[in-house]
Specification:
Blueprint lengths: L21 H27 L13 H23 L11 H39 L9 H19 L2 H4 L7
Length: 175
């Protein structure tokens, strides 16, 4: 060992020395399952994100796609968390693999909430379209309701990500 702490012909404390344990096997399993789900989400995004309404209708295509975008983000975070869980039991000292596993798991919470929110909002938009198709002048686009429908999701996303565990854990500061 050198005077500066470097180790020659040896193993450092943060390199994997133990065999893959139960957590690693479950991490691999869940990472592979999330990868399979990403394929299904892409298929459903293509199927449900297609344009079926004429362009003069006031319902935008992007509102149908957001739930699938959030599910893609959730599955990607779950897959990364699963793959980083492999080295958690193998390391003698907790390091980068533990931090990344927990971080991506924590990010899955608000993205899952956002996916559920967008699914619910899309259902409301679908029900609104049913009413508008029967009478196009029944609901105005410049009233208080339309402004609330625009701003409430933004407030929801703001609070969902502020409540995310990494941001409200002890010792976390925004400065």
């Amino acid at each position: 060992m050198a005077s500066n702490g470097s180790v020659f012909n040896g193993t450092s404390c943060d390199s994997p020395i133990n065999p893959i344990a139960t957590r690693g096997a479950l991490g691999i399993t869940f990472a592979v399952l999330y990868a399979v789900v990403i394929v299904f989400v892409c298929v459903h995004l293509r199927k449900h994100g297609a344009t079926h309404l004429p362009t003069e209708k006031r319902f935008r295509l992007v509102s149908r796609r957001w739930q699938w975008y959030w599910l893609l983000a959730t599955c990607a975070c779950g897959m990364i968390s699963g793959f980083t869980a492999i080295d958690i039991d193998r390391d003698y000292l907790m390091g980068t693999s533990f931090v990344l596993s927990v971080l991506f798991y924590w990010v899955m919470v608000p993205t899952t909430l956002a996916a559920v929110w967008e699914t619910t909002r899309h259902w409301g938009s679908f029900m609104e379209r049913q009413a508008v198709d029967s009478n196009p002048f029944e609901l105005s686009q410049e009233d208080r309701r339309s402004k609330i429908e625009f701003y409430v999701p933004l407030v929801f996303y703001l609070f969902a990500f502020l409540v995310c565990p990494p941001f409200n854990s002890p010792g976390w500061t925004l400065a």
